[in-house]
TrEMBL record:
Primary subcellular site in the record, as a coarse category: membrane
Key words, A-Z: ATP-binding, Cell membrane, Membrane, Nucleotide-binding, Transport
Source organism per UniProt: Gluconacetobacter liquefaciens
Official protein name in the record: Amino acid ABC transporter ATP-binding protein
Coiled coil: none
Length: 258
């Protein structure tokens, strides 16, 4: 990670629901412009961690420092946090009764004048960036899953968040749409933006990640630069997980091959 102050620092984040310990002592730093991919078995707490970052869930203890400011402090409003930290959900969550353009403009309209200036131009530029310039007046049910996913991404980007969270962005997509999404992640719209991506799609992870974080049982148990995570130098637990997730990928390369 670069020497500059992290955009996001999680410090000892814990969450228990009932008697179930869901997050335990999660600590993580995210550098400006970095893409961190979170991998881990089902139920390991990945979505819960993302929901805590966006204040959809309140962690019990720990700190979420965003540019040094603790988002867990009582006076910090969730609305304000969600303007800085955008989230794209697995099932898109588009408003079915609004066309694509109106879906993109809803948040700027409710956020007030400062966000509305140029919002229409921004929205149309983003639709062009995700390859959907001709779909502005379509309704979500008229679009494929991949197109809806790209609308959801454009809708989050229109608020110009400083950090984007993606929860399983490829899970509902066919291979062609996944390829289109990969291209989008490599495009000007998303390159250089700080982001966290949760995925079970290891091939996708290997193409977009700067760093891999591995969760298990609510804990962050391994962390590595992408080149190392997919090499023989990865931690034994991460290698076991990746080998299981990619049974046909063969042996790991040495890090110098990457
Ligand atoms: N509201 C809740 N009440 C009780 N338990 C919950 C709640 N939300 C999540 N959990 C539990 O917390 C654990 C972590 O769930 P989470 O959805 O974060 O896992 P995940 O890593 O995202 O899994 P997947 O890969 O299947 O999406 C699971 O055991 C889940 O059952
Ligand atoms: Mg999940």
């Amino acid at each position: 990670m670069s020497g500059s102050a992290p955009v996001l620092s999680l410090r000892g984040l814990c969450l228990t629901i009932g008697t179930h310990r869901i997050l335990h002592d999660c600590t993580l730093d995210l550098a400006e412009g970095e893409t961190v991919v979170i991998l881990g078995p089902s139920g390991s707490g990945k979505s819960t961690l993302m929901r805590c970052l966006n204040l959809l869930l309140r962690a019990d203890s720990g700190q979420i420092l965003f540019r040094g400011r603790d988002l867990m402090a009582r006076h910090v409003s969730a609305t304000e946090v969600r303007r800085m930290i955008g989230m794209v959900f697995q099932d898109y969550c588009l408003f079915e009764h609004l066309d694509v353009r109106a879906n993109l403009l809803l948040a700027p309209r409710t956020a007030g004048a400062g966000f509305l200036a140029d919002a229409d131009v921004r929205a149309m530029n983003l639709l062009a960036a995700v390859g959907l310039a001709d779909k502005a007046d379509r309704y979500p049910h008229e679009l494929s899953g991949g197109q809806q996913q790209r609308v959801a991404i454009a809708r989050a980007l229109v608020m110009q968040p400083e950090l984007m969270l993606f929860d399983e962005p490829t899970s509902a997509l066919d291979p062609e749409s996944i390829e289109a999404l990969q291209a989008l992640f490599r495009s000007d719209a998303l390159v250089g933006m700080t982001k966290i991506i949760v995925t079970h799609d290891i091939a996708f992870a290997s193409k977009v990640a700067d760093r891999i974080v591995f969760m298990e049982g609510g804990e962050i148990v391994a962390e590595a630069a992408a080149g190392q995570a997919f090499s023989v130098d990865a931690s034994p637990r991460l290698r076991r997980f990746l080998t299981h997730a990619m049974p046909h990928a063969g042996a790991f390369s040495s890090s110098t091959d990457l």
